[in-house]
Specification:
By secondary structure, this protein is an alpha/beta fold. Helix content is 43%, strand content 17%. It folds into 2 domains: 159 residues, Rossmann fold, CATH 3.40.50; 215 residues, Rossmann fold. It has 16 helices and 14 strands. Helix 5 links the parallel strand 5 and strand 6.
């Protein structure tokens, strides 16, 4: 029995405690409720479940393994570090988990086009892949800054047949891509579906994406117990919008002995305005149709945020994360760009695993903490993606 008395996650109005909901015009609330009804009906059918299970196994390559990073653990001293290898999934990240679900839902609903945003490009590649698989046109909006930074993923999206829309407004990064994609969706919400790339946005998207991503934690809990006869002592994952993290965390929320830590981008430092540490320095507000913690300017606008990882530079965060922070079930910490780069290189050169810059934030946190713990302690990191997309950028930045 957990000591935490969880409220419904979410309740019937889409709230996780005080966060979430549908902050939208009435006509859009109806559209979202229709999606929620379709999700609840379709996703419980045997046909949907069987197709998704088969694709996860034969197409994605699930279950993803858990790997004991023994050389890294020995190098650091202290706790033993384990990696949940979502980087080995088809398309190279956890994003395929919910993209398959969303594309199948769009097919079952008879939608004519799937629209989405992407930051680092992993959601874009995964959604373009899933839409090619089920035969639905796909349109991806991506900030110009991220397009230039994540060229390999841009090329993949084009090869997969999606329409790529460059976004040059504002900071030309993830927040602006979300705005642009949502505007396109509003042109025909009856025939289009907006496949949000994280556990953010109006209800039912935080719930839907969470549910599709929760396969990570279910697998990890079973795998770790089968091998070690107990849960890991600590589980951790990077947090931008928070999909890979909530995917891992959900299965362990009732295991009080498991410490759960989300890791945000401290960027150039929490004492600067060049970070994306929403849970650490943000405050309750609203963005993109939901209530959540938000980094805001003095005049109440979303703050231009920064992270070396394009998939983490978002001024909001998933509403379930906000609730879990408030009830103190999950701790949220941060690491800087420099710590992230160091972890990226260390994992690559010690274990032969090149992580995504997003995932390297969680690796960096574990590298910081492991030496302070006894050797019988265990840390499980969700290695949410591989670093192919980041290799050229990192090499240029470090002068390799």
């Amino acid at each position: 029995m957990s000591k935490f008395d969880f409220a419904p996650m979410p309740d019937t109005d889409g709230f996780f405690g005080n966060y979430g909901g549908q902050i939208l015009p009435p006509e859009l609330i109806k559209v979202m409720n229709d999606i929620n009804q379709a999700y609840e009906e379709i996703c419980k059918t045997e046909a949907f479940q069987n197709e998704l299970m088969q694709l996860n196994q034969d197409y994605v390559g699930r279950p993803s393994p858990i790997y004991h990073a023994k050389r890294l653990s020995d190098k650091l001293g202290g706790a033993q570090i384990f990696l949940k290898r979502e980087d080995l999934n088809h398309t190279g990240a956890h994003k395929i988990n919910h993209c398959l679900g969303e594309a199948l839902l769009a097919k079952f609903m008879g939608k004519k086009k799937v629209i989405a945003e992407t930051g680092a490009g992993q959601h874009g590649v995964a959604l373009a892949t899933a839409c090619a698989l089920v035969g639905i046109p796909c349109e991806i909006h991506m900030g110009q800054v991220d397009i230039e930074k994540e060229h390999p993923n841009v090329t993949k999206m084009k090869i997969l047949g999606c329409k790529l829309v460059p976004v040059t407004r504002g900071t030309a990064t993830l927040k602006d891509a979300v705005d642009s994609a949502f505007e396109e969706y509003l042109k025909n919400p009856d025939e289009f579906i907006y496949a949000i790339g994280s556990v953010v946005g109006p209800h039912p998207f935080p719930k839907m994406v969470r549910d599709f991503q929760s396969i990570i934690g279910r697998e990890a809990r079973q795998q770790f117990n089968d091998r070690h006869g107990k849960n890991p002592d600590i589980i951790t994952a990077c947090v931008g919008g928070g999909s890979n993290a909530i995917g891992l965390f959900t299965a362990f929320l009732n295991d009080d002995e498991v410490k759960i830590v989300g890791v945000e981008p401290a960027g150039l430092g929490l004492d600067t305005d060049k970070h994306s540490a929403t849970m650490t320095l943000g405050k309750p507000s609203q963005i993109h149709g939901m209530k959540c913690y938000v980094l805001e300017t003095e005049d109440g606008e979303p703050m231009p945020v920064h992270s070396i990882a394009s998939g983490l530079d978002y001024p909001g965060v998933g509403p379930q994360h906000c609730y879990l922070k408030d009830i103190k079930r999950v701790e949220y910490d941060s690491v800087t760009d420099d710590e992230c780069l160091s972890a990226f290189m260390t994992l690559s050169q010690v274990e032969g695993i090149i992580p995504a810059l997003e995932s390297a934030h969680a690796v960096a946190w574990a590298m910081r903490v492991a030496p302070t713990l006894d050797k019988d302690k265990t840390i499980l990191i969700n290695l949410s993606g591989r670093g192919d997309k980041d290799a050229d950028y990192v090499a240029e930045k470090l002068g390799l």
